[in-house]
Amino acid sequence: MAEKESKKVTVNRTYKDTVFRKLFSDRKNLLSLYNAINGTAYTDETELELKVVTININDGHNEELMEQCKILGEYAQYVEIVRKNAEAMSLDVAVQNAVDECIQKGILEDFLRANRAEVIAMSIFEYDKEEEEQKLQKTYEAIGEKKKAKAIAISLWQEGDSIDKIARIVGEKEKTIREWTGEKN
């Protein structure tokens, strides 16, 4: 089992819904969710009137809704198990173990048995994409910080501060400050 640095896997709401959409494409599951959210008791899936709402289904949130819609609560449990596993093991192993654990505990059991390979593939893709987007965001932030440091260095240099002082202030090497300002040795 490949060990990873301890990390918190977080949700990116712009795409973290492929397993959710697959789960609730079943009209019976969707009706259960609809009834829980709207406080209704419809029994005929053809009578659904859909309205999109955003709610927090992470552990400890909207517990009453989770109790009213068992399938939603089980989905939230699945996501939480994947997150916890991903802190201690490689992503592919974390997802596979989460699916196995959920099936053993009766969490989304029928759904996971019927859609095992697809759920594993979707979950790995989602978390990999999330991790890559976080890395990209850090890179953009670093670039932004470097641009700010350069602008500050140039401004300080134009105000007459010494290269060594500017280097200490912005946390860069004197050589870098000289390149930014065009100052020769």
Structural topology:
Blueprint: H1 18-24, H2 27-38, H3 63-68, H4 70-86, H5 91-105, H6 109-158, H7 163-170, H8 174-181
Helix pairs in contact: 4-5, 5-6, 6-7, 7-8
Q: Summarize this, please?
A:
This protein has 185 residues and is mainly α. It has helices at 18-24, 27-38, 63-68, 70-86, 91-105, 109-158, 163-170, 174-181. The longest helix has 50 residues, at 109-158.
**Roughly what percent helix?**
55-70%
Global outline: elongated
Number of helices: 8
Order of helices and strands: HHHHHHHH
Distance between the ends: 53 Å
Unreliable sequence segments: 1-15
Residue-averaged pLDDT: 81
The fraction of residues assigned to DSSP E strands is: under 5%
Question: Total strand count, please?
Answer: 0
Largest sheet: none
The Cα radius of gyration reads 25 Å
Number of discrete domains: 2
Derived from helix and strand composition plus strand pairing, the structural class reads: mainly alpha
Structure commentary:
- The chain has helices spanning 18-24, 27-38, 63-68, 70-86, 91-105, 109-158, 163-170, 174-181.
- The chain is mostly helical and 185 residues long.
- Helix 4 runs antiparallel to helix 5 (91-105) and helix 7 crosses helix 8.
- The longest helix is centred in the last third of the chain and has 50 residues, at 109-158.
- Mean pLDDT is 81; it is low at 1-15.
